[in-house]
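Lecture notes, unit on protein representations.

Consider one protein chain, 407 amino acids long.
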Amino acid sequence: MTHTLRPRAAAAAIAVLVAATVAVAPPSGAQDGILVREDFATGEETAMEAGPGGWEVSGSRYITHDPVRTGAGTIGNSNLALHERVLGNDISITTRLEAEETAGAWDDFSVVLGYQDPDNYLFVSFNESDDDMTSGIFAVVDGVGRQLSNMTTPFEGGRSYRINVTRYGDVINAWAGYQSHTSNPYPLTTATTDLFPIGRAGVGSRNNAVLVDSFHVHDATGPGGPPYFVPEQGIWWDSTPVPVSGGWQHGSLLTDPITSGAGAIGNSNLSVTDHGALFPGDWQLFAELHAVPTASAWDDASIVFGYQDPDNYLFVSFNETNDPWTSGVFAVVDGVGTELTDLDVPIRAGRAYDVRVDRWGDDIWVYLDGRLVAEATTDLFADGDWGFGTRNNAATFALDHLEFWAG
């Protein structure tokens, strides 16, 4: 993987320029702005309406168990599943998708939006191979499809990808990243259309079985949250955290942890960036964490920010069990830790979680799998590095991306 390290002075200058031209409202903290949340937990009902392909919830995934494999015949999706809610413009669709691996080189999946009926909708297609009917942004009007923009990035069958599709006004953007890698910092493809500004959203494919781990749609118009993945409003970092304590691989895989505990509030195991700090101002950090299960009920993982040194930083801790040292938002000042707010939502070791941490001035919001789980306020460490940590056990992490606005 290539890592681009942005000089601090240059990034700060860009941030000031962005702030001068774009006004972004901070989240209210009262809502998370999610219009659709589907995580497909076994035993829970889904509001996804199954179309062709034989869709069902199985093993905490939404899958096609009987996919149509003959192809759509023309541009379109042979297999479709749509959420029942009708959505307007200015939305951000975040989903994790996988196309079933086959012997062919055209394993594909799609994100659908603006859906009116089987003959009228928009979709973004992701495929192993780039052909005239897949891999790009498409419109189907009165049953006739056309490509609005092409996409040359290949997507392997049998591999799970984090996908983000946004529509703001007439502009559609698409991003993607490996489940265990940093997302691409720029849109893979962009199209402009005034077609179908109101409609349903969902998933599909032209010719393959599809496995869906999650499907979320965010409202990006109001105080529920500013737009995701908008390059002209945000600055992307892609820098590798550097181990501080504990045995790390590549700065994000903790394989040989210090297991004696931090002794006080803090992280025995730390890995933080040494280039690419979060500057004073407003920012959002999107990451994935996975606490490795042990025999105990205190498997934990932390997101670190405002990092100055091992004795001075902020962190959000997630744990299987809520105790005084973990599961909350904490500040460590001169080696002494304080809990700023409790987080009473336990995680389950062995499972990957999407985490989002927002900081707007002195206010901090923490989201777990799209749900607002903690709020805190502090004026400490507005400027600092970011990273990962644990108090007592192994874990793996993946930075999705950072968005930053100068204050």
